[in-house]
Write a sequence for this structure.
């Protein structure tokens, strides 16, 4: 039985205070029923004795608290899940946005997820092919991993995200693969770009798309990634699919957290973000992984734009602590026309060694990767030296490395947003570039692989 209260005492922005309540729980859903029958929705943010602080999903403008009733529903926010979600577009609260009927639910799941026993986790160790050489060849994505993309304002992270969503797949053809894509706080044009791109390429058939627009309420922005992860958990652990979750843009999510925190008059932490930002982000990122005894898996690629291009900003800083590496996009490469502009040297996938090698990608993958990193780093040093002192100071071998770095950016990293390279094509391209160096310089590659793959 639902309890209704006419004891709404105060409204401040999106927050509403209800007094004299009993048995109310944190995160419980609330309906605010007005005299004319209009209903607004919210959830309980805080409970203290007989007082409940409610966060409204809609605007509080025009709300008459003297004649309104607060109805507590006794449950938290839930998502109706079914295999029919694939191919559909929803808003940030899980309501259909594609004009079709609501999903007929197999079950309803709490969007906050369920606690996972750490001992039940299985180690990520299987390769996911994204079709992007800078990731597949050098910073490999492993099934069950969380690998964020650190972007900057004005860089094409939307196109990069759409490319990964379109192209990602597991190499074993008999295994079911799905993508859950959550667009958080984006413009209508960006949302339409994602929807039309997925429809045009046919990727929509294996994708569940959640779009939260910039003019939607902040509380919906906080719910959107949890909706996406709940859908992913159903597809992975109930239906045995391998699910890639792409969340863009995490910065908009954190700004919504800061807005809600300020409305609650909480003591701010670094840069005004709430002190629990680390814990909150961990509650999202740690929902990736593999579980022993379950066939499916959840792999996460959160995308965030670094405010002021600052890697030490709290959002990328805390994200780096929680996740297993990062892919960093470079403004300098973007200006050169390199797309996707992945800066491979500071980028890192901490689990890449677990997903490559014989039986997973190819036996020469690890050696090739190490040699490419080394040669590109030396080539960049040679280019910087020639820019300062002139090309005349470079030795013959330094000039070869500088030329290698130039070709590496133009041919290996830059592939456009429509090219989908297999892992074999990526590795072969690496060998083509390395073959421009003398064999004696390939000190990180076993002799047997040089004999097999080096081109004179």
């Amino acid at each position: 039985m639902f309890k209704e209260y006419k004891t709404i005492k105060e409204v401040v922005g999106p927050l509403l205070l209800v007094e004299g309540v009993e048995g109310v729980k944190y995160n419980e859903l609330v309906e605010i029923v007005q005299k004319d029958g209009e209903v607004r929705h919210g959830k309980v943010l805080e409970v203290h004795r007989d007082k409940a602080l409610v966060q409204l999903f809609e605007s509080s403008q025009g709300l008459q608290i003297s004649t309104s009733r607060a109805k507590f529903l006794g449950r938290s926010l839930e998502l109706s899940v079914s295999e029919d979600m694939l191919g559909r577009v929803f808003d940030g609260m899980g309501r259909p946005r594609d004009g079709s009927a609501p999903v007929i639910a197999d079950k309803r799941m709490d969007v906050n997820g369920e606690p996972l026993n750490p001992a039940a986790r299985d180690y990520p160790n299987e390769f996911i092919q994204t079709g992007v050489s800078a990731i597949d060849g050098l910073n490999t994505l492993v099934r069950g991993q969380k690998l964020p993309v650190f972007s900057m304002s004005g860089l094409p992270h939307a196109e990069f995200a759409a490319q990964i969503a379109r192209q990602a797949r597991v190499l074993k053809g008999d295994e079911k693969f799905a993508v859950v894509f959550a667009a958080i706080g984006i413009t209508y044009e960006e949302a339409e770009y994602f929807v039309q791109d997925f429809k045009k390429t046919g990727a929509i058939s294996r994708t569940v798309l959640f779009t939260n627009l910039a003019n939607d309420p902040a509380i919906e922005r906080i719910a959107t990634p949890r909706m996406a992860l709940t859908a992913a958990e159903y597809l992975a652990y109930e239906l045995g699919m391998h699910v890639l979750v792409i969340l863009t843009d995490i910065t908009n999510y954190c700004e919504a957290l800061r807005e809600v925190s300020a409305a609650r008059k909480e003591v701010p932490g670094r840069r005004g973000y709430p002190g629990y930002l680390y814990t909150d982000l961990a509650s999202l990122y740690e929902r990736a992984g593999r579980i022993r005894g379950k066939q499916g898996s959840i792999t996460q690629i959160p995308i965030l734009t670094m405010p002021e291009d600052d890697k030490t900003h709290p959002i990328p800083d805390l994200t780096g602590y929680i996740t297993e590496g990062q892919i960093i996009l470079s403004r300098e490469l973007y200006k050169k026309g390199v797309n996707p502009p992945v800066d491979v040297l500071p980028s890192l996938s901490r689990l890449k060694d677990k997903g490559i090698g014989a039986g997973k990608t190819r036996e020469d993958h690890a050696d090739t990767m190490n040699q490419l990193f080394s040669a590109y780093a030396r080539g960049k040093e040679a280019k910087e030296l020639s820019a300062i002192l002139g090309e005349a100071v470079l030795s013959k071998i330094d000039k070869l490395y500088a030329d290698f770095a130039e070709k590496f950016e133009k041919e290996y990293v830059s592939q456009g947003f429509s090219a989908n390279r297999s892992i074999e094509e990526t590795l072969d391209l690496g060998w083509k570039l390395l073959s421009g160096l003398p064999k004696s310089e390939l000190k990180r590659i076993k002799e047997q692989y040089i004999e097999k793959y080096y081109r004179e």
Summary: Residues 3-72 form a domain with the Elongation Factor Tu (Ef-tu); domain 3 fold (CATH 2.40.30.20). Residues 365-389 form the longest helix (25 residues).
